[in-house]
Design goal:
Elements lengths: L2 E6 L5 H10 L4 E5 L13 E9 L2 E2 L1 H10 L6 E7 L8 H9 L4 E8 L20 H23 L1
Parallel strand pairs: 1-2, 1-3, 3-5, 5-6
Antiparallel strand pairs: 3-4
Length: 155
């Protein structure tokens, strides 16, 4: 299954680390939503959207990217990292997927090192995350998604 994951990862690169772990076990193209590139998501079997949690939700660039480029009916999944709280997580991109009749396959989240705002004064929170256990969980999440999708294709 050819997969694209459209993502935003800055600050400490937490989300990118998780996506790179997933890419070790599958055919994944990572698409940074902040780069200006021609995007043809209709050529992928499955599409992921990934972000750190900013202000309790996905980063706005990922949300706008999903709104603009997500083709109708494509299977989707969501990945996010967070420092202190998940907030509403992937809720806003889930709504976009629902509007475009895209089946949601699942979501993966884990802690990520965070030094935003007041956390900087204390040296940050969730130090050391994502750690190797988080990355292994991310790999297993992606493999499980692909096994499920492959079974659906074989029917």
């Amino acid at each position: 299954m050819k997969t694209a994951i459209c993502y935003y990862s800055r600050h400490h690169g937490n989300t990118r680390k998780v996506l790179e772990a997933m890419a070790e076990v599958g055919e994944i193209d990572l698409i940074d939503v902040t780069t200006r590139q021609a995007v043809r998501l209709e050529h992928y079997d499955c599409i992921g959207f990934a972000s750190g949690i900013y202000g309790f939700t996905f980063q706005k660039a990922v949300v706008e990217f999903a709104r603009q480029y997500l083709p109708c009916g494509k299977p989707v999944f969501f990945v996010y990292t967070y420092g202190g709280a998940k907030g509403s997580g992937a809720k806003v991109v889930q709504e976009i997927a629902r509007e475009k009749n895209c089946p949601v396959l699942g979501e993966f989240s884990c802690k990520g090192y965070d030094t935003f705002g007041p956390f900087k004064l204390t040296g940050g929170i969730a130090k050391g995350h994502p750690d190797e256990q988080d990355l292994e969980h991310a790999r297993r999440f992606y493999l499980t998604l692909m096994e499920h999708e492959n079974r659906g294709v074989q029917k």
